[in-house]
Design brief:
With 425 residues, the protein is an alpha/beta fold. 44% of the residues lie in helices and 16% in strands. Helix 2 links the parallel strand 3 and strand 4. Helix 7 runs parallel beside helix 9.
Length: 425
Amino acid sequence: MTLDSPKLGCTDSPVRHERGQKAVFCGLTGIVWLHRKMQDAFFLVVGSRTCAHLLQAAAGVMIFAEPRFGTAVLEEQDLAGLADANAELDREVARLLERRPDIRQLFLVGSCPSEVIKLDLERAAERLNAHHAPHVRVYAYSGSGLDTTFTQGEDTCLAAMVPTLKPAETAELLVVGALPDVVEDQCASLLAQLGLPSVRFLPARRSDAAPAVGPNTRFILAQPFLGDTAAALERRGAKRIAAPFPFGEEGTTLWLKAVADVYGVSAETFEAVTAAPRARAKKALAAHRGTLEGRSLFLFPDSQLEIPLARFLARECGMVPTEVGTPFLHRAIMAPELALLPAGASLTEGQDLEAQLERHAAINPDLTVCGLGLANPLEAQGHATKWAIELVFTPIHFYEQAGDLAGLFSRPLRRRALLAGGSAA
């Protein structure tokens, strides 16, 4: 374990770097929300039966029902290199595309490193593109738990798409990160009211609406876990707009203000557009502040949402972050968030599970945000917990969701108070 002081932000506390046992889902989980977002896409996981069972359990559906994802299971002879896995993959893809002519984007998702599955999926994607384009565009990315954690599956997916986006000369704003459709519509409406008619989203709902990228493109991240995607866009010449993330009233306002400043939106227009939704968000947050204010908070590393959420809970809900763990700390992307995070919060990058559990026990926080694997044992020990995975599957961005976001954290405390026979505040 090593310690260093962050160069950015208002906090002078060191960042604890840990490398040890982890408790987090792998990047395959991202398929569960990505396949719903991209309506003409199909995600074909190339891997073992274990991976098929994971997706089946995580999605809560039978994988063989073929919504917009499935698994090409590698048998023992494939893993041993005794069969021509490339020929088998080509054959299965051909069968899939014949059966599903609605597919326009096909993602080959590796569940293990290529050394294990004996397949180079990037080369396979190139080969399949030569055969199936332009009707179908084939991509490849890794969702392996050895290469990626929970939300990194979306990052590697979007980063794989960026090199194929058409070049653009026009000046457009690109909002990056998969958002529920209703939230994306709210975002688009706010930006249009600010006077930005040319706004695109990555990922787009359908392939024919995919954005173009060029040196005049400005992009802003809607999700904090997209470091590889941001780097890929910058290699295409696009310029990132730095901002806190749009969680809560303050975060949303600062996110929109960063865009408004770049595009020269007047203060009067900005106030006119944001005044009413800001007031609604503040009113919704007030209903939860009484439950959350003054309560201590501990976040285990899981989704890379931890730092923005800690900022939101501290500044808008009055909570006291003790330890804020995150799988990776991307300094440039997190700079605006670190500048707003209370100085007393302890930051941890990576995880050594046993050591972190010891610190958690010593702190004994009022509320713990953690993965599913830790929640039940901690609840059995008497701790109130919030599943981190719920924060990814629930609409939480922008003004209209501010109260719902606070409610995700107030609900466990109210439930515990009711079970104890006390006040639910």
